[in-house]
Amino acid sequence: MLNHILLGLHWGEKKKKKGRACSQIHTQATVELHTCSACTFKAELVELFAVGAVSSKHQCDFFSIVHVFRRLQEEEQQLRTSSLPAIPNPFPELCSPASSPVLSPGSLPPEESSSGKYGLSIVNQLNLAVSCKLDMWEFVPALNLPRMLSVYVNRLFFSQIVKIFSEDGMGKVVEIPADMTARDLCQLLVYKSHCVDDNSWALVEHHPLLGLERCLEDHELVVQVQASMNSDSRFLFRKNYAKYEFFRNPLTFFPEHMVAWCQEANHTIPPSQLLQNFLATSSCPEIQGHLYMKDVGRKSWKKVYMFLRRSGLYCSTKGTSKEPRHLQLLADLEDSNIFMVITGKKQHGAPTEYEFCIKPNKGRGEMKELRMLCAEDEQSRTCWMTAFRLFKYGIVLYQNYKIPQQRKTLLSHFSTPVRSVSENSLVAMDFSGRIGRVIENPVEAQSAAMEEGLAWRKRSQRMTILGSHSPLHHSSLNSVIHITQLWFHGRITREESHRIIQQQGQVDGLFLLRVSQSNPKAFVLTLCHHQKIKHFQILPCEEDGQIFFSLDDGATKFTDLIQLVEFYQLNRGVLPCKLKHPCTVVAL
Question: A GO molecular-function term, please (predicted)?
Fold first, then answer.
């Protein structure tokens, strides 16, 4: 076992060995750590310290673990004694004091393992050893040392340094264990960046030289993905609202003309059955349609008819024939991943902008290894890429989708405040008429609450005007108050707004606001609807000496852009859909 620890130390110092070999060393060393006795560890670790295999930094880390273990022992002992229930004493005359009707924690017999060879408890032994700098190995047999060193080896020798970049180009270095998933890392970054955890954050694998990127699945191990990446590749941390949108609106992602069994069933399959056929391993769904494929080693593209099944991606060598002799296997789903190409037309000369590719997992990341494909429109590309994920991961994707909802349900029971009887008796009232009435419709009650909030806000603004010494204070405040909002992106171009919305998932209601390039006094609302990006100009208008903003030529006016966004989040108005998801860029 000493050899395995030395190998782990060598790997931890040099950071050169990666992959399956280190995993085997880690597994075998962990097993031996659990099976060996404390005395064996004493001899072998003394030898490690003697030969100098463990650096002084690692020795300090080990003794810091002992400090932590001592603190945990103290807390556990306090918790055990404080939470011990009062046990009725059937023989009070045998206890001291005799008048005590219950058994106190002090009257209980001590645990056998709580005292060591010197008659001291584990906590006192550790206190004595650490404070007086005595020989630690005199106290090792009383500790659960194999478990402690197992954790030590896992954290010290099998943790990795990962650098995460945000969309503004800033990076953050994070040390993570080898078994951390993409979901766990996103949760950590959300906590450290003080972001709103709405389960829409994603970790993106980005290859700038190849122009490729994909969102890691929540269950993927970050260290394993990093081991297969090139030196120029990086991880990005950003929003992706479309990650599990196909579970909510499957018909939007899977057009009937591209799903084989929908044509066979004459378009009568409901959305729930559509997803069940994709998730069930017993069914044989199939996506079919024309795609442009780039010839390997050439710059030319050709249009072929393709089929996507659980067994892989196939192309037909004879028109639209499905006969096995006419099908050619292009990619195996188990050994590859699907990427979105972000520089398709410029770098690869693609016929359209809707390009994607299939990249093998074990390749070197060279251009000749990529299977470059191109669709006619965004809906077709989304269908192919979503079906690839469903065929590859199956029910695991659905489990990833349900886990945040289950956690939210569990936390809601603890976070919901207990309401008093008087609060439960409160009802919504309408006092707009001569006589007040109870609002029984919940939708009307919510609308009344929003109107009351807007009225309160207007009153507060009037108070601000009265308290200001400058007559331009109110108008200047309304003209800049939107700068603090995450959905406002300033002076970005039209193409840049398209890129941001495409990166964060083209779902209905995804929006951002920016300054207009054609009219410096106006603003533009960029909105995604049915996977198409549309732009709406927000013009300023003046009435009674006050500046308002309007989206519909003055029919509906707002004092600032925040009010405008809040209104269209509740009402569709002249827009094709409500504003649902703001495009945000967070700096790490």
Answer: insulin receptor binding
